[in-house]
Design a protein that fits this description.
Elements: E1 2-5, E2 78-86, E3 92-104, E4 107-112, E5 115-122, E6 125-129, E7 135-140, E8 148-150, E9 156-168, E10 171-183, E11 189-196, E12 200-208, E13 211-221, E14 224-227, E15 230-233
Antiparallel strand pairs: 1-9, 2-3, 2-13, 3-4, 4-5, 5-6, 6-7, 8-9, 9-10, 10-11, 11-12, 12-13, 14-15
Length: 235
């Protein structure tokens, strides 16, 4: 559930405790490709398994950029989203998993099985690339409804709502921003992304033609291991 307030000063986020990581099927959604733009392919270990969750530890650092508050790439954080695709026929449900690797105060990565996307923090905002390699932004400063930029999918992007309140399985959040990326032409699409303070991407909705795909945050925090002794957080 999303409640949008008029443009104004963001409120401090008030959220519930992060939700538990539920069981679910795996899914790969074409339209929920915000973090697929500009991705490099994932690497594999010697036995052929994906290393998107592995590798050496990153750094504990922040850039000081005002934009980072809405996209805090804290090293080791796991993001788990439930997804649904609304097309012809039954709703297709699945999950999307990503893990943060922070390489420096101004640079971080979102890693997932399909690949890795790099983000850079600066006084201009949160820079990334489209899948064709063109310079783009996830969020550009100043945070103002008149600011526009090229988004990760190559469309014109702007802030469509501020001071947004939203509830997902991960909890309730306030003081969020929603960006809207749109592209016309032969393959029109629009992507709405809700970013919340001290959390990051909480919800995403993509539309193309008659298809709609959504993702909602279920869990964010340290990786969780469900072993013989029960639930524990992985260091």
């Amino acid at each position: 559930m999303i409640e949008r307030a008029s443009w104004g000063r963001p409120r401090r986020a008030e959220r519930d405790q992060p939700g538990r990581l539920p069981r679910g099927s795996r899914a790969s959604l074409a339209l929920l490709a915000l973090v697929a733009a500009g991705c490099s392919s994932s690497t594999s270990s010697a036995d052929g398994s994906s290393t998107w969750q592995g590798g050496t530890a990153g750094v504990d650092a922040t850039s000081g950029s005002a934009a980072e508050r809405f996209f805090p790439l804290k090293d080791g954080t796991l993001y788990h989203y439930k997804t649904e695709a609304l097309k012809e026929g039954p709703v297709q449900a699945g999950v999307l998993m990503m893990k943060v690797h922070r390489t420096s105060a101004t640079r971080g990565e979102l890693r997932k099985p399909a690949g890795t996307q790099v983000f850079e923090f600066s006084s201009l905002g949160i820079a990334t690339q489209t899948k064709t390699g063109a310079p783009a932004f996830l969020l550009k400063l100043p945070i103002d409804p008149n600011t526009t930029w090229l988004g990760p999918q190559g469309g014109k992007t702007r802030i469509s709502a501020s001071d947004v309140s939203i509830t997902t399985p991960a909890g309730s959040f306030a003081g969020c921003l929603t960006t809207l990326e749109e592209r016309g032409g032969d393959s029109p699409f629009r992507v709405q992304t809700t970013l919340c303070p001290d959390v990051g991407i909480v919800a995403l909705e993509a539309q193309s033609g008659g298809a709609v795909e959504r993702a909602e945050l279920v869990y964010y925090g340290p990786p969780i291991d469900i072993g013989e002794e029960g639930l524990r957080r992985v260091p």
